[in-house]
Design brief:
9% strand, seven-stranded parallel beta sheet, TIM Barrel, alpha/beta, 16 helices
């Protein structure tokens, strides 16, 4: 029996665990030697040895014909079935039973996304998108999430076009201003138009935005606590508390700078950034609109309530453990999406069970929206 055995489920967040040479394998020769190594933080040496061991374990499983089963409760990270091997990922999907799964990368953006040389930055993006599309190309259930930088709008549009041709079904964008320009600046309208023209959504996801928590907040006279998975340089508790700040600012810009009004076909997802903040965010958008339309011509010009743009065009993945039933009762069933975060450990060993424990008063229509229909809306399926 598959893990998703009770209904159709679409997974809005999963990952590839990259090997050190993954980007270089797919990079054009002109930038291959200019890419920095894969950034794995302070645990890099140890992690490289772990990856080597995982590669060996994949070969052993392949040679032995060992079954791929009960993966959601099994080991996570590079050793998880299908973490970086495409054929094994299909077998893991057979066990998980999801009808579709968005696939993000994990660490590869450290090699190019903030690179000062635009040829290296966009060459790395091209290599990443090619690698993602190749990984997902053998299985129609897997939807490759490409990456994008807004730094050069003309190149960004080109990468959307090329990424779609290669097979990318969505694009992960940094949720931050671009230099001294907000994402609603008219210079970026060609990018938003390209999303609409090609029918692919943008994705805001944890990890692509500079941390809003300064190091001073960690200097409390106590030893530095380990991150959420026990080491390295991942999320700590103060980072976690501030996760929603960046997407709230970004979505506020898209609403009040008129992007969602100018491009009503634009769709987006806010992935692995929690969603407990969403109901109050929508209320605050509407209160702000009511207050500031008296003095701000751009706010006054919007024909819809601010929250209606978000309801129409954006969807959110809650964390396992958040009270999603309460969030749906508060804000409505059309906003939230199921996700597993496979094979990252943050997804837990039973994401469905954790969500279901908060769904006591939900009817079947609301469950169907959460597990599949909201995903289909976001992806223009």
């Amino acid at each position: 029996m598959t893990y998703a055995s009770t209904r159709a489920m679409y997974d809005a967040d999963s990952h590839i665990m990259e090997t050190p040479d993954w980007i270089e394998q797919h990079a054009d020769p002109g930038i291959r030697d200019r890419l920095p190594p894969l950034g794995l933080g302070k645990a890099g040496g140890t992690t490289y040895r772990l990856i080597e061991d995982a590669v060996g374990k994949v070969r052993e499983r392949r040679d032995s014909g060992a079954p791929v089963e009960n993966v959601v409760r099994g080991i996570k990270g590079w050793h998880a079935p299908g973490a970086f091997d495409a054929a094994e990922r299909s077998r893991a999907m057979d066990d998980l039973g999801f009808g579709a799964q968005l696939v993000f990368s994990t660490f590869s953006a450290t090699q190019y996304l903030s690179h000062a040389e635009m040829d290296v930055r966009y060459g790395g993006i091209r290599a990443h998108n090619r690698a993602m599309a190749t990984f997902c190309s053998h299985d129609k259930r897997l939807i490759a999430v490409g990456q994008l930088s807004f730094q050069d709008p003309e190149r960004a549009v080109r990468e959307i076009e090329e990424g779609v041709k290669m097979g990318c079904g969505a694009f992960w964008i940094p949720g931050a201003p671009v230099g001294d320009k907000a994402p609603g600046h008219p210079d970026f309208d060609p990018i938003w138009k390209a999303f609409c023209d090609h029918g692919v959504p943008f994705m805001l996801h944890v990890g692509a935005t500079k941390n809003l928590v300064s190091k001073a907040w960690l200097n409390n006279g106590q030893p530095l606590a380990p991150d959420i998975v026990g080491g390295g340089e991942n999320l700590r508790i103060r980072d976690f508390m501030a996760l929603s700040f960046a997407p709230q600012l970004y979505l506020t810009a898209l609403v009040f700078d008129g992007v969602l009004e100018r491009f009503p076909e634009l769709r987006g997802g806010v992935i692995e950034l929690g969603a407990g903040w969403v109901p109050e965010f929508l209320r605050t958008l509407d209160i702000s609109q009511k207050i500031f339309k008296r003095t701000d011509a751009a706010v006054k010009a919007l024909p819809l309530r601010a929250s209606e743009y978000i309801r129409r065009q954006v969807r959110f993945t809650p964390f396992p453990g958040e009270d999603v039933g309460r969030m749906i009762a508060d804000a409505g069933p059309e906003l939230f999406l199921f996700s597993s975060d496979y094979p990252h450990p943050e997804g837990t060993d039973d994401p469905v069970g954790r969500f279901e424990r908060t769904f006591k008063d939900l009817d079947d229509d609301a469950r169907e929206l959460f597990y599949s229909k909201n995903f289909a809306h976001m992806m223009n399926m």
